[in-house]
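Entry 14. Ran structure prediction on the chain below.
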Amino acid sequence: MKEKRSSKNKSLIIFTLIISLLSVFFSYHLLLEQKNDKRYIIELSEKVKDIENSNLHSINFKNSSEFNAAVIKSINEFIKKKQTENLNIKYKQFDLASDTHLKIHLYGKNNTRFTLVEFSDLECPYCKYYHHTLKKIIDDNKEIINWKWLHLPLNFHNPIAHKEAIASECIAQLKGNRAFWVFITDIFQKTQSNGRGVNNLSKVVSDLGVNRNEFNKCFLSGKYENLIQNNINMANKLGINGTPATLIIDNDTGNKQLVSGALPESSLLSIIHKLMNP
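Output, structure tokens:
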């Protein structure tokens, strides 16, 4: 009887250790993605404490298969919970991206006085930096400025830049405008830039909760080739041959100013101020 009880206790200890170690592993993975976000360190500590304080004696396993199934279930539940939380955080950062915009990629409110029309390339290292600049401008001035994205994958960044542009359109089709902005932000964060791309595009897609089969069907359909080309043609007509490039439009007066390069926030706001007060 003592041997049986001892065996059960050993199984429970092993179970606890497995869950604890996997919690550490997965949380550490999220820490890397979130750049050492202290929130995950605190959450990890609480998770370990919960395991340590749980009533282990209430857990009974009839055989090793039941034990293994319990381990797998706990791991999957923990991973799913973390993935959902992580995704919700990403979506929350783009609350201004309304899903009513299905044909254009607009970040910000409708009918603002100014629109920043950005021509961008997901493999452009300058665009990566500039992406955060424009988001901050809109977040800080959401009543008067919005941001519209147009694709301009540069030839020397292709075929990767072009493929990522197509992928972003499929994300928008399947998950909406907000998911589009979350996706391109993820690409900028994870790409090696200059046409080298991300290590695993399929994982970036899956992490957004997109069905891979539906995504692959869209991606291989070629349905967004014309849209990408139309964006490129528009850039060519404006004389744009590099990224990022931003067409600043005063929607009240119709006045416009085209600027090239990853300008700092202060320079962009200065241009907007001059358009507002000529």
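Residues 2-33 form the longest helix (32 residues). Will compare against last week's run tomorrow.
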